[in-house]
UniProtKB/TrEMBL annotation:
Keyword line: Glycoprotein, Leucine-rich repeat, Membrane, Receptor, Repeat, Signal, Transmembrane, Transmembrane helix
SUPFAM superfamilies: L domain-like
Cellular component terms (Gene Ontology): membrane
Keyword Repeat annotated: yes
Family matches, as InterPro entries: Leu-rich_rpt, LRR_dom_sf, RLP23-like
Name listed for the protein in its UniProt record: Receptor-like protein 12
Pfam families reported for this sequence: LRR_1 (PF00560), LRR_8 (PF13855)
Annotated transmembrane regions: 244-267
Organism placement in taxonomy: Eukaryota, Viridiplantae, Streptophyta, Embryophyta, Tracheophyta
Main location: membrane
Membrane topology: Single-pass type I membrane protein
Length: 303
């Protein structure tokens, strides 16, 4: 295959054909140090993903600082920085088809979706620190999501949906600050979705189809709102329960008030004795000037 001889290959798009067979990691394929876009989606490739090739795809591994300090060929970074493709390229990014009229200097993408790949996801993918888009959906991949994915700090879109992945979502994924699309639906994942700055803001549809997953943005995990019974506050009384203490106080006030006012209203002799007693008290405590005014007012009232 002539592609093996192209050491400067930057874009490989074989999407939507009828290619089949295994992808082996030969020494020639491993020499694609400048590859930026690999798209072999919608074919019939099978076997395991070529994990041994990945660390040799240098452009996907390194940010600018890494290029300038560690590349054995000092001209590679200069060539990548200056060159822009004029031909339009269509890639899948963040779940949507995107037409690239010019490929940005740092844009990198891997799309192995809709094939027949099986086996575990290579942990070597975590070494691609400059990768922006990774789509492995619609395959037969099994095992756990590698925790090394947390090293892909430039990753913006990750789609692992419709596989046979098991286990918990690694907490390292919650540290991917540039991640704007995360689709893990229709696998066999379980446990609590890790908490982070962004992961709870993703749509719940990106996690559906995993019966064992729970926690925001999905429904809460069992026991999230469980409170021990001995710490619960005392249950308040029902609205229709009779408050006997309050009623007793009200009855006592009414009886006492009636016992004091009732004789004054209905018993003339008691009323006369009461006011006579009040006059005696008034004469004993009131000053003379105020007492004279009170007597003049009482005389006018009696007259």
């Amino acid at each position: 295959m002539l592609l093996k001889e192209i050491s400067t290959l930057r874009v490989l798009i074989l999407r939507s054909n009828k290619f089949y067979g295994h992808i082996t990691c030969t020494e020639s394929i491993g020499s694609w140090s400048m590859i930026q876009i690999v798209d072999i989606a919608f074919n019939k490739f099978s076997g395991e993903l070529p994990g041994k090739c990945l660390p040799k795809w240098h452009v996907m591994m390194a940010v600018k600082l890494y290029f300038t300090e560690n590349f054995t060929d000092a001209n590679i970074y200069e060539t990548v920085s200056k060159h822009k493709y004029q031909d339009a390229v269509s890639v899948m990014n963040k779940g949507l088809a995107m037409e690239l009229l010019k490929i940005a200097n740092g844009f990198t993408s891997i799309d192995f979706s809709s094939n027949n790949f099986h086996g575990k996801i290579p942990k070597e993918l975590g070494q691609l620190k400059a990768l922006h888009v990774l789509n492995l959906s619609n395959n037969f991949l099994s095992g756990q999501i590698p925790s090394s994915f947390g090293n892909m700090q430039q990753l913006e879109s990750l789609d692992l949906s419709r596989n046979q992945l098991k286990g918990e979502i690694p907490t390292s994924i919650s540290n991917l600050n540039f991640l704007s699309v995360l689709i893990l639906s229709y696998n066999q994942l379980y446990g609590r979705i890790p908490t982070g700055r962004q992961i709870q803001t993703f749509p719940a549809d990106g996690f559906k189809g995993n019966k064992g997953l729970c926690g925001p943005p999905l429904p809460n995990c069992p026991g999230d709102h469980h409170v021990a019974t001995d710490t619960l506050p005392e249950t308040p009384k029902a609205n229709n329960e009779i408050e006997w203490n309050l009623i007793s106080a009200e009855i006592g006030f009414i009886v006492g008030f009636g016992a004091l006012v009732g004789p004054l209203v209905f018993w003339k002799q008691w009323r006369k004795r009461y006011f006579d007693r009040v006059e005696d008290i008034a004469f004993s405590i009131l000053p003379p000037k105020l007492l004279r005014k009170w007597l003049s007012w009482k005389t006018k009232l009696d007259g």
